[in-house]
Structure formats: C-alpha cells, structure tokens
C-alpha cells in the first residue's frame, strides 16, 4: 500500500467519523427536545388532574347544580373547556388558541345524552 492510498483511506474514514458525529449531535438535539416536550406534557397533565380534583370538590353532592341534566363529569369538562382547554379526544389537554370554539369539545360536553347515558 503506497502513501497516497493510505492517505485516501484515512481521509474516507475521517469523513465517515465526521458524518457519524453530526448524526449523533442531531439525534442528541432531537432527544433533548423530546425530553423537554415530555416534561411539559407531564406538568400540564398534572395541572389538569389537579384542576379536575379541585372541580370535583367544588361540585360536592350538597352543591346545587344549575343544569340537572348534565352529569358531574360533563360539568367538569365544561369548566375545563371554559378555562381554555380542549376536552375532546382530538386535542385533549391542549390550550384553545384565543378561546376559539371546538365542535369536537362541544359534542363531548353537550352531545347526545339520551338512551346511552353520559359518555
């Protein structure tokens, strides 16, 4: 093997190592972003659980319910929706931008209540 062939082989290996290093940096960045997103979702999920627990306590059996046809769970969903969160299975837990209406959420809260009981 002459010096030129050895140098070319060394250069190819160096290029591969550089490429692998760039790939690893990209994977590490994406992993960091996913970990941050997961943490934010866990915090938001805990906030929603705390809010539901709070609302359950507020709607204790001795509290007068203004709409007797709505169950306690639907009232909780209605309150979450009014607080700016989606309650539908499509966007559940995400914030509603500028309090826009969501037909999916409204169907969950006010949808068909007869025959099958509350969802």
TrEMBL record:
Keywords in alphabetical order: Coiled coil, Cytoplasm, DNA replication, DNA replication inhibitor, Metal-binding, Zinc
Cofactor descriptive note: Binds 1 zinc ion per subunit.
InterPro entries: YabA
Coiled coil: 10-58
Entry GO MF terms: zinc ion binding
Residue numbers binding Zn(2+): 86, 88, 102, 105
GO cellular component terms given for this protein: bacterial nucleoid
A single BP term in Gene Ontology: DNA replication
Keyword Coiled coil: yes
Keyword Metal-binding found: yes
Main location as per UniProt: cytoplasm
Entry-linked Pfam families: YabA
Localization, UniProt: Cytoplasm, Nucleoid
Co-factor requirement: Zn(2+)
HAMAP family xrefs: YabA
Function (record text): Involved in control of chromosome replication initiation. Inhibits the cooperative binding of DnaA to the oriC region, thus negatively regulating initiation of chromosome replication. Inhibits the ability of DnaA-ATP to form a helix on DNA; does not disassemble preformed DnaA-DNA helices. Decreases the residence time of DnaA on the chromosome at its binding sites (oriC, replication forks and promoter-binding sites). Tethers DnaA to the replication machinery via the DNA polymerase beta sliding clamp subunit (dnaN).
Protein family membership: Belongs to the YabA family.
Subunit structure comment from the entry: Homotetramer. Interacts with both DnaA and DnaN, acting as a bridge between these two proteins.
UniProt name for this protein: Replication initiation control protein YabA
Organism: Jeotgalibaca porci
Gene that specifies this protein: yabA
């Amino acid at each position: 093997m002459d010096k030129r062939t050895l140098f070319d082989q060394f250069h190819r290996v160096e290029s591969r190592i550089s490429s692998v290093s760039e790939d690893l940096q990209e994977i590490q960045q994406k992993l960091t972003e996913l970990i941050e997103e997961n943490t934010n979702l866990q915090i938001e999920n805990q906030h929603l659980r705390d809010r539901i627990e709070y609302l359950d306590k507020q709607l204790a059996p001795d509290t007068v319910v203004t709409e007797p046809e709505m169950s306690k769970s639907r009232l909780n969903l209605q309150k979450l929706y009014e607080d700016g969160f989606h309650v539908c299975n499509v966007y559940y837990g995400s914030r509603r931008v500028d309090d826009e209406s969501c037909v999916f959420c409204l169907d969950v809260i006010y949808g068909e209540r007869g025959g099958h009981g509350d969802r």
